[in-house]
Amino acid sequence: MLNERQSALWNALGLGPQYVQRNELRKCIEEAKCNVVKPIVQEAVKPSIPMAPKATKEFVYPRTSQVSSSSFAPIPPTPVKPTSVSSSLTAPNVKNLDWDALKLAVESCHACPLCNTRNNTVFSDGRAPAELLLIGEAPGQEEDLQGVPFVGRSGKLLTRILESLEFKRGENLTIINTIKCRPPQNRNPKETESLACRGYLERQIELIDPKLIVLLGRPASESLFGAPQKISALRGRVHQLEVAGKIRHIIVSYHPSYLLRSPEEKRKAWIDWCLVADTFDELKAK
Asked: How would DSSP label each residue in 65-111?
């Protein structure tokens, strides 16, 4: 019932025997009619961050050919009024820096207290430009030690997922985090810490200029959508949001570390990554 790529992803996630209940496939395909969500952008609560749309009917099976390329027509940009941020928690102006200069700016950053507890900053795995961009939450212990995102157990799972879809780390994609220093005890980033790194994140997205962005985990999704949202309210669809001065295609899914803690959610992640692969193929062909 699955094609070769879907089957490889299924095995990478360790989902076991492959089967589909009677009539499930037809029902799911009929329900997957509208995969692109064009949210109404409201006044932001953080600098240049559009608010998330309300949840619509959850997409439950990977899209194949139901959505034409015209479905990806961009929506007009909506001005967003930024919120003032304390200068002591603001990174230096980086909007004119190239990739290497931006990396140096991150390495010397002291815009928030996380600089006092880090071993290394974690800038990226990959370079700019790249056609696919993955954004995680924040560095963990292994990332802090090695200076590379997604290198622990969750990184190994992510690598298996990507390789099953013929994406290769360091070649045709780039991986970054919303913030560049590890929060103590791997807690979620505070709002002030995210704001301090916001300029770095936006400049990275601008330089990478991806065809598709995949947000992994709730903090990563909140960094772009702006309002607290459950992953279940955002996943399963292609969103279009203005980020770093351009309309971006965005898919939200679970963080690999969450899948390790909650393996029962891996099938949903399989659906999300099938959607990533199909959407990427369609956008690349335009």
From this structure: SSS-GGGGPPPPP---PPPP--GGG-PPP-TT--HHHHHHHHHT--S
